[in-house]
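can u pls check wat happens w/ adenosine-5'-diphosphate
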Amino acid sequence: MSRIQLLSQDVVSKIAAGEVIERPASVVKELVENSIDAGATRIEVELVEGGKKLIRVVDDGIGIGPDDLEKVFLKHATSKIAALEDLEAVNTMGFRGEALASIGAVSIARIASCARDGLQGAEIEVRGGKRSRLKYIGTPEGTRVEVKELFYNVPARRKFLKATPAEMSGVSDVLTKLVLSHPEVHFTFSHNGREVFNLPSAPSLRDRIAVYYGGELAQELLPINSREYGLEVSGYVLPPTHYRLNTRMQFIFLNNRPIRDPGLTRAVNEAYRTLLQPGRYPVVFLLLRIDPAAVDVNVHPAKLEVRFREPARVYAQVLQAIRRALDRFQPGLVPPSDGVSQIAATPTVSSGSSVTAGVPSTGAPGVIPSMPQPARAGGKGVTAKRGQVVQLHSAYIVEEVQGGINIIDQHALHEAMLYHEIRETVQGGALPAQRLLMPELLELSPADFYHLLELRDALERLGLELEEFGRNSIIVRSIPQILKDVDIKELIDGLLEDTRGQPADERMLNHIIEAMACKGAIKSGHRLSPQELSALLERRNENSRLTYCPHGRPTTLFFSLEELDRRFKKTAK
Ligand code: ADP
Ligand code: MG
């Protein structure tokens, strides 16, 4: 008996479909790209249950005539290229003729269309790859595509679809890039019958950003502009004060397509290096236009990577262009607000052991008040009394202990404490919550909004009560008592960052607790009062598991007297 057999056409097409279409977000991307390719000026996207039940995209583009409508669900059916040479000059978003065939293979889909100036509109349906007869109907100029019950016939894939908010957060990521790269198109988006956004055609990217992210952010945009050789760099960057905790607000479009390029990302972050602490990232909207001869045309449309002929020159130009914009904004700008890591890393210690930080933009005092003068004995340096403890650089605590000294990272230690406290309390029930007298309103991007809703159950167990408000806003009604002094916005940013892409299970809860502990812990750069200092160490003594913070970094380094003696070359003669 032979073991090798040829797969049936049905199986082959379902496997192939899986490569193009993974989830609702990929369907939305393909359909909207088709509408853009069709020259639409208005595109409506409607979803039901995160697109799992229904995805509908309606446009006013050139439409599809009845003859062509018979072909759209066939594999390799495209109007965008005819021969291999055409690939060199392709300027449409699609060209492989695979998307509709793939979508039709794994859903119940229907296209109704009327070509511009066409005499008659028509409609065709496909169920799991089987096409219906063409039906002539009356329908407005343009195209309407409906995709129902995605993966209804591929249970293995259907099973992997996530909860509605998670799918919505993926869809929002896709749509965000499309609306930013095509401000001239009027986009509307609704979910379960509720409008999520309505973005009228905008004359410029700045106007689109203003409507999408709010005027407050748009006001701060710094334009960039540079044209050299075959490359034009334009768009906007935000001053370092608008940093994010991840690179998700860094949009880079090459000839109107979103791209990902590690070299470009490095160039962007490098431009802000002296202005932002590690772990904080700038917000940028970069538009690159390049002579097609200077990039290797990538024949894989879903691939976001490109290959520049002269990458070093491209990166240098982008870096320069951003630096120039930032210089114009405020020459010689120094780190904003707390400037935490800079204080710790490069302090200027004056004689009174006061630490001068970078000039904070918030108007907070630039000079941290002197610490208590350490006792000095015979010029031998710092000698703390046994058990007395000393805080250095507002970040470390030095403690005299039996046989040596401990150097404690105040943030790491407090973080470890909070982590264990929160975990233990949650295991015994819910965390005590504190209702906010002034509920906090957070305006989020659509992606973050849906992601946060997905976390809501877990967050409520932790005492963080959220309520939807308007389109992409959330009201925080209460916070865990344990975190009563925390900056809520920073806490939520941290939560979103730490939990993105994680499955919604117990591990997720752990990530949330980690983020809470991290945001709730005293920062380095915070000067502890003597009472705070002794309270911290006392609580530490009650718990022996605090040697490492939840991220696995040590909270305490111990130096034995022997080691110190050895280092000072005082080993016994
Ligand atoms: P591709 O975009 O790679 O050509 P698709 O499978 O996405 O392949 O679409 C197949 C063809 O169907 C397109 O080449 C185009 O001619 C036609 N088409 C699809 N969507 C639309 C639309 N919204 N408006 C006009 N034509 C469309
Ligand atoms: Mg396409």
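Residues 311-329 form the longest helix (19 residues).
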